[in-house]
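Hi all, posting the design record for the shared folder.

TITLE: backbone redesign
STEP: 1 of 1
STRUCTURE INPUT:
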């Protein structure tokens, strides 16, 4: 679940970032509406609009790589928190605020999942002791299949914007096939991957 949650949240941001990076408008809502006025004001800033796009792209892409997902979640948190506040401050209806709320909760969950990687930042210097030599390696979560899948998702997330939404149905089908394919492959390989870790854990506890 954690791996695919990273893919899902990362995809949402990478997909939404491309139009900003390209310097295009995100919506066609007229400026007479509060939402349209807000997005038009950000679009008119130019450089800031591009900066928002790159911030979304980098944090989302880092999440999807799996290898750098902790850094991605930490970079993602302030961005999604900002989006969360915007969607609850302006009348976006009921759907968008719900989605941003779930994305914020999902990001918090991902940070808590990796808490051992950043909790040390809150420890006094004289109490820091880091020894992971006896920790069994999680070869399932760090398997290259997940990393390759994440890279493929990053590339495919940009496809509709870069190629003007051509072959959209084929794109959707390809995304689904890759996601399901990675899951099936890892389920088949799971026993083989986890066997060495279980043996190491058994030896450690005697």
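Okay, here is what came back for every position:
SEQUENCE:
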């Amino acid at each position: 679940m954690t791996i695919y949650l990273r893919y899902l949240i990362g995809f949402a941001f990478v997909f939404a970032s491309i139009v900003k990076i390209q310097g295009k408008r995100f919506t066609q809502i007229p400026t007479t509406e509060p939402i349209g006025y807000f997005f038009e004001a950000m679009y008119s800033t130019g450089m800031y609009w591009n900066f928002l796009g790159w911030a979304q792209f980098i944090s989302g892409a880092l999440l999807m790589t799996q290898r750098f997902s902790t850094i991605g979640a930490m970079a993602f948190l302030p961005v999604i928190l900002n989006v969360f506040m915007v969607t609850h401050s302006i009348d976006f209806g009921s759907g968008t605020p719900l989605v941003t709320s779930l994305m914020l909760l999902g990001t918090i969950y991902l940070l808590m999942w990796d808490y051992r990687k950043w909790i040390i930042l809150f420890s006094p210097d004289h109490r820091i002791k880091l020894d992971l030599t006896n920790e069994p390696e999680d070869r399932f979560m760090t398997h290259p299949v997940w990393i390759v899948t994440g890279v493929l998702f990053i590339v495919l997330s940009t496809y509709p914007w870069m190629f003007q939404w051509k072959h959209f149905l084929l794109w959707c089908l390809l995304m689904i096939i890759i996601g399901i394919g990675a899951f099936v492959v890892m389920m088949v390989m799971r026993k083989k991957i986890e066997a060495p870790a279980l043996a190491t854990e058994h030896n450690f506890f005697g």
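COMMENT: The first helix runs from residue 2 to 21.
Let me know if anyone wants the other runs.
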